[in-house]
Structure formats: C-alpha cells, structure tokens
Amino acid sequence: MAKKKENVFLAEMAPFLSKRYEGEKAASIMAMAWKRYREICEENAQEPKAMYMHTRERIYPGIAAFDALTANGEAREQAADFIEDYYAWRSRRMADMLHKLMKIPGCCRLVPKFFKSMTRSNFGPKAGFQAVYYETTNKVLRFDMIKCPYFDICKAYGCEEIVRAYCHADDICYGSMHPRIEWGRTQTLGDGGTCCDFKITVKNM
Questions:
Q1: Distance between CA atoms of residues 61 and 132, nearest Å
Q2: pLDDT tens track for 83-122
Q3: What distance in Å separates the CA atoms of residue 66 and residue 76, rounded to the nearest whole number?
C-alpha cells in the first residue's frame, strides 16, 4: 500500500513552484514551507480533529508556503499571487471532475440540498464555521457564512491577503458546474465583505 503523503497540497506544490523559480530557490522555498507547516501543526496540536480537513489540509499549507516565499525574498503581494495561482490550478482540476459528474441526467437538481448537507457536515461549528441559512428548496440554497477559519486563522498568522486564494478557488470550482446552476456569491470575507453570501440556484431551461 502506498504511503499517504504528509500533505498533498504542499507535495503537489513542488513541481508548480519549479515552473516559477530556479531550482535552488524553489528547493529552498519548499524546504522552508515543509518546516513551517510542521511548526504550525505543532502550535495547533490541540485543535479539534473536525478542523483538520481545513487547517492541516488547506489553510496551514497556504500559510507555510506564503511564509516561505516571503522569507526567500518575495514581496507579500507576489507571494499571495503565487498562492492564489496554485490554488486556482488545483481547483480547475476539481471543476473538471464536477463537470463530468453533472453530465449524469438529473444530477444538477440535487445540488442545492447536497450543498446544504455538505456544508452542515463539513463546514459547521465544530470545524470553526458559523452560517445563517435563509432558504433551501429543490431549486435554491441561500445562506451567509459569517465566521470562517480560513479568514480567522490567516488573519491571526498575519497573512490575511491569502484568504482570497481560497475564496477564488471556490468560484473556479463551483462557478460553472452546469449551465442550469447559477453560483450567485457576491461577496466573501476574504475579499473584504461582511460575510460570504452563498446563493445556488437551479435555473429552468
């Protein structure tokens, strides 16, 4: 059985990083990113396991990479742009998988209720989120995410500017799932909004 990678997001960042930077600098950034990632995990060793799929799998790798980039001479804006480009690249792969799934007849009609169930299960209070739900029908899901660990933790670690990478990755992944599905989010905490105002609508065609 193949050994599970310590963190897929950082492991897959190495070849992406090598396309942007010379070998020695890319190697230095990756080594520092792994070291920083392990430090952050250790600093948060007591966090609930319900947070792991967000913190250890996505948030901490982003923070670690950002810190490693800036420590190796990259300006904060350039480092944030790199993180955003990398997460966008990963998200496009997930978007391709969703496009294939949505070709199954009738699948798109399940999206509002599936998203609500998935959000309550994986993006609930135990994982550090807080949402206010307004409407759920067969055609519409509308809720505001008013507390988000992606925003809170990045802000606490002094790299609030990378939150937009996670927000924009969502837009790429879910923004074009199917011609009948409208992804209607207009603001996010990461882009300076007062909340993340999710609205998913199944349109008639």
A1: 28
A2: 999 999 999 888 888 888 888 888 888 888 888 898 999 9
A3: 8
The b-or-e profile of 19-47 (16+ CB within 10 A means b, else e) is: eebeeebbebbbebbbebbeebbeeeeeb
Give the residue carrying structure tokens 């901490």.
60
Whether the Cβ atoms of residue 88 and residue 168 lie closer than 8 Å to each other = yes
* Nearest one of 179, 174, 183, 185 to 205, comparing CA atoms: 179
Q: What is the pTM of this model?
A: 0.91
DSSP assignment of 123-174, as one string? SSGGGT-EEEEEEE-SSEEEEEEEE-HHHHHHHHTT-GGGHHHHHHHHHHHH
HEC letters along 39-85: HHHHHCCCCCHHHHHHHHHHHHHHHHHHHHHHHCCCCHHHHHHHHHH
Closest-CA residue to 197 (of 171, 165, 162): 171
* Cα dihedral sign, 37-38-39-42: positive
Residue found under tokens 């995990």: 41
CA distances from 177 to 20, 76, 166, 203 (A): 30, 32, 18, 12
Within 8 A by CB and 6+ apart from 24, the residues are none
Q: Which residue has the tokens 């990045």?
A: 154
